[in-house]
Amino acid sequence: MATATFGAGCFWGVETSFRKIDGVTATAVGYAGGHAANPTYEQVCGGATGHAEVVKVDYDPARVSYGDLLSVFWMAHDPTQVNRQGPDVGSQYRSLILTHDGEQAATARTSKDALAAAARHASPIATEIEDAGDFWLAEDYHQQFLEKRGMAHGGRG
Hints:
- With 157 residues, the protein is of the alpha+beta class.
- The protein has 5 helices and 8 strands, in the order E-H-E-H-E-H-E-E-E-H-E-E-H.
- Helix 4 links the parallel strand 6 and strand 7.
- Helix 3 packs across helix 4.
């Protein structure tokens, strides 16, 4: 088993996109990339903690590759937007790949470079790639939010 972590705007729809992938064994939404311990949703939304809304994806590399997960990540949001996704504005909605080892970091950089070279976007790719640090689990009502409400359709949330 392996873990991948992605920030692509509001974590509700992004989590749904990953839950549908064969080989993904679990997902959890939470906060990462900030400086405060155990932040709350209200603190993260206030922008003072520096955290991004992220999805932690546990997966079986024998069934789905990290590269395949990156493809889902790129399709789940607009990687050219800086500190926002659609109507959601703030650094907590930044495009972010948090890598768990050197191989993930290299694959993420190669994938980002390939996306930029493909010139499918009019603006530069704004996605940040950083080492994974602490992951703080979001409150229970955020977990599988769209599924719990019968609104899980995938894509942007």
